[in-house]
Amino acid sequence: MDDEVDRLVAAWRRERPDLDVDPMEVLSRVSRLSRHLDLARREAFADHDLETWEFDVLSALRRSGEPYQLSPGQLLRETLVTSGTMTNRIDRLAARGFVERLPDPVDRRGVQVRLTSTGRAAVDAALEALLERERQLLASLGGDDTGHLVALLRGLLLPFDVSK
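The structure assignment produced for this chain is given below.
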């Protein structure tokens, strides 16, 4: 059974037989799956009145373990945004009651951002909804296929992660 990528690749092979379009077989599918995952994420978070960026910050705090707090610098590294963007995000999350700023006990000039119980409830509920949607995206794969796909994708991503 052909998918849209099969049709695109066949067209490129017909139009440009001089090129090896084999990478499209994999990466065009990864790109299309990425779009479906992005949509599933946005829907899961919207069901819980969260934006994707809000989930990213809240989940970084939640994953940090008790007391669920990080410095703004640590949040920058976890979410890969600029300091100005992070300041704005922390302000907006604080206004919603999802996080609070606390003085840094080690650096008087610094602050710590702590997840509130309201923020924890929001991120936990959104995570559960996200995982359900992700299970639906993977439903056509069996357990062995999923494990094999994990290993293959890890192999593709590792060179990018090591460079950080």
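Interim note for the steering committee: The two ends are 39 Å apart (CA to CA). The first strand starts at residue 69 and ends at 70.
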